[in-house]
What we know:
Blueprint: E1 2-11, H1 15-33, E2 36-42, H2 47-53, H3 61-65, E3 70-75, H4 83-97, E4 102-108, E5 126-132, E6 136-145, E7 153-159, H5 162-178, E8 183-188, H6 196-208, E9 215-220, H7 221-230, E10 237-240, H8 242-255, E11 263-267, E12 275-279, H9 296-308, H10 312-327, H11 341-353
Helix pairs in contact: 1-9, 1-11, 5-6, 7-8, 9-10, 10-11
Magnesium ion (MG) binds at residues 246, 250.
Amino acid sequence: MRNYKIAAIPADGIGTEVISAGVSVLECLQKKVGDVSFQIEHFDWGSDYYKKNGVMMPENGLEKLKAFDAIYFGAVGAPDVPDHITLWGLRLPICQGFDQYANVRPTKIMSGIQSPLRNAGPGDLDWVIVRENSEGEYSGHGGRAHRGLPEEVGTEVAIFTRAGVTRIMRYAFKLAQSRPRKLLTVVTKSNAQRHGMVMWDEIAAEVATEFPDVSWDKMLVDAMTVRMTLHPKSLDTIVATNLHADILSDLAGALAGSLGVAPTANIDPERRFPSMFEPIHGSAFDITGKGIANPVASFWTAAQMLDHLGEHDASALLMSAVEEVCAAGIKTPDVGGKATTRVVTEAVIAAIMKR
Length: 355
Ligand code: IPM
Ligand code: MG
């Protein structure tokens, strides 16, 4: 029996709804697969916890999480708590504290889901965006001076280190190499930003020599939005900075039909710490409690988690069940269906069990 300890942090908004859907699917996989078990412990950290305790998670939060094999995360963000508090209080400390420097965001058009792109269907858009997840524009460097005065200054400094860029570049080349097309696009803004971004380009060229079988090209981030929209088939694996990939991955999710299906994995490739898996969509307070949140992203990220744990068969089983359910038109309103979270979840469970 292979036993995995998983920390579930549903946190805010629809996070609770989609993580509970995901947990029932994991329990079903455990039944189906037989020789694998998930020991799932829930943590009530997030904005409600903050309102009671003044912090998003306890001081020893990271210490507690260290003991787990993976973290299954919902969403953070609440209408009555500033976003920078929810973010810097929970999600970023986990990503940065555990040095989860590779953020992996696969996107594809699933059958049964309509892309807003005319003539694009399954197979026309199948990408993985690799987002640098430990530094860049999210380094937290900067400050404010002359607060409240007319001469007030705010700085937000992006930090790019040779070590940080080299390791994400290597990860991206390796991932591209593992995919059938062996194709990588390196995104920067090295025409306007002439220091860190030029260093990205240089390091990309250096790392490329270690992967002679991977074809790669460079794109400026603004032109990249055009290529993603007009020539989605020309792309496969994509690597970009923390902020650029944040923006491009929202575009990718929208082009694939809905952010409700887009997953993300925050990975420590060296496995010194647990990695964290979450849907990309946020806490979505407009639909919280209505029972209509799309659970597909949380299922897909559970599949990423299973892959990371080495449970490739269970991961493939889950993804094929999810694809079958989407193709059958059992889907939530954000992707044009009428089903509730529960109906989709039960359909995925039934599809797993009948396999
Ligand atoms: C994401 C989100 C976050 C990010 C927000 C919630 C700060 O947009 O995971 O893409 O920018 O990292
Ligand atoms: Mg984002």
